Amino acid sequence: MSAPLLKLTNVCKSYGTTDVLTDISLEVRPGEVLCLLGDNGAGKSTLIKVLSGFHEPTSGTLEIGGAPASFKSPRDASAHGIATVHQFGGTFPLMSIGRSFFVGAEPTKGWGPLKRFDRKYAGEVAVREMRALGITRVTDGDRLVGGLSGGERQALAIGRAVYFGANVLILDEPTAALGVKEATHVLRIIMQARQKGIAVILVTHNVTHAMTVGDHFAVLIRGALAADFRKGERTREEITDLMAGGEAMAELEAEIETYQREHAGHVPDPSELERRTHPKQTG
Ligand SMILES: Nc1ncnc2c1ncn2[C@@H]1O[C@H](COP(=O)(O)OP(=O)(O)O)[C@@H](O)[C@H]1O
Ligand SMILES: [Mg+2]
User: Fold this and answer.
1) Most buried among 19, 34, 39, 40, using CB within 10 Å?
2) What range defines the domain where residue 137 resides?
3) Ligand 1, from 13, 14, 20, 40: best to mutate by most atoms within 8 Å of Cβ?
4) Are residues 200 and 89 in the same domain?
5) Same domain, residue pair 280 and 194
6) Do both 70 and 111 map to the same domain?
7) Given pLDDT bands bounded at 50, 70 and 90, which one contains residue 105?
8) Is ATP-binding tagged as a keyword (predicted)?
């Protein structure tokens, strides 16, 4: 196994008196997909904000390529090769595809007072890079990003990160708003990035998507690392259980089964379940 590209040691993040992340230690390796799993509010986005330079950790350390690193801003993180694609591709709907691809790094033509954004070049590169990711329907870089589908926007953002030489690519729920076909395409693009030796951190709720492309899995529960395992070490059921807070679901299933046994297979209504699960609070 290769040396970690990114290493977190005992990272904590609090907002005031609220501890959102506690003691997160993780290693991210080149050419691997790390799936970050967890229920809503578990702290996934907060962890990503720490990794992408939006927030500094309250305590704990980050290392990149074996050297200590600290990010004061998102610019710092991207200078270290960390690219983050926020949900919905993080793009601006009213920007052209070409400009969006180069935002913050605009190519120019001309010189001095005549220097201006090279629209044609930007559009051509953006279209070419999207084509390399299998997006063939987009042929005009002057079109607005708002006209792209969700999957195409993800491809634009991922293509951009790869083009500018990211070695860690962070994707926050890239498939959440997509249909099956588009989600599959985005997963293919993730595999392409992985093949290039990029370390991918994929945040997802979808266990199927995670199991399809993941090499390494980390499950967050209430801000703590509840599990950290590699492909093949856990079954789908175990992963689903971990994500759903396991015990709560098992309890609900047992309640339904008991009721069905006692009531000729009928399904209990919600108030009946509530009475059984919390007998002292009702009735
Ligand atoms: N700026 C903030 N101030 C206070 N609490 C926050 C802030 N940002 C997030 N939180 C809290 O941190 C917890 C984790 O949030 P988040 O990282 O967004 O979770 P996830 O992405 O896993 O759904 C939540 O309880 C959320 O309310
Ligand atoms: Mg989130």
Assistant:
1) 34
2) 6-245
3) 20
4) yes
5) no
6) yes
7) confident
8) yes
